[in-house]
Amino acid sequence: MTKDTRDNDVAFIQALAELLNANKLTELSVTRDYGPDDSLKVRVAKQVNVVQQAPAQMAAPAAVPAAPAPSDAAPVTNDPADHPGAVASPMVGTAYMSPEPGTAAFVKPGDQVKEGQTLMIVEAMKTMNHIPAPRSGTVKRILVDDGQPVEFGTTLMIIE
Fold this sequence. Notes:
CATH class of the largest domain: Mainly Beta
Function: This protein is a component of the acetyl coenzyme A carboxylase complex; first, biotin carboxylase catalyzes the carboxylation of the carrier protein and then the transcarboxylase transfers the carboxyl group to form malonyl-CoA.
Number of domains: 2
Strand order of the largest sheet: 3-10-8-5
Strand content: 25-35%
CATH superfamily of the largest domain: RNA polymerase II/Efflux pump adaptor protein, barrel-sandwich hybrid domain
CATH architecture of the largest domain: Beta Barrel
Shape: elongated
Keywords: Biotin, Fatty acid biosynthesis, Fatty acid metabolism, Ligase, Lipid biosynthesis, Lipid metabolism
Structural class: mainly beta
Protein name: Biotin carboxyl carrier protein of acetyl-CoA carboxylase
InterPro entries: AcCoA_biotinCC, Biotin_BS, Biotin_Carboxyl_Carrier/Decarb, Biotin_lipoyl, Single_hybrid_motif
Pathway: Lipid metabolism; fatty acid biosynthesis
Number of helices: 1
Radius of gyration: 21 Å
C-alpha cells in the first residue's frame, strides 16, 4: 500500500466519522474496492448510552398491590415492540411523517389504513424509503417524531 493510498483511506474514514455524527447515526459500514483482491472494509461506530425512565405505574410504592389481570385478557406489556401490531423500522435513518415539509402527515392516530399504504418515510443515505402498512387496521399510536433518527428495529407505530 502506498502512502497516498493510506492518506486517502484515513481521509475517507474521517469523512465517514463526520457523516456518522452529522446524521446522528450510531454505526456505518462501507467496503471500498480498489480492484480484484484489493479492498478496504470500514465499520465506524459509536457507543450510545440510553437512559430509560420507569413508567409511573412501575414507580408506585411496593405496598400498593396491583390488580390481577383477567385471565382472558391479553398480557399487559410496557414495551411497544412486544405489541402484536408494532411496525418496526427496517433500517437506520431519519423518520418523516409527511412526503414534504409543511404537508399533511401520511397517517395520524385514529386513521384507518390498508395493507401496503404508506405510513411514513425513513430517509437513509439520501434515499426516501416508504414504510408500508404490514396489515390493514387502525393507527393506535405513533411512537416517533417527524425528523427523529431511528435505528433498525425501532418501533415506529402501533396498528390494531
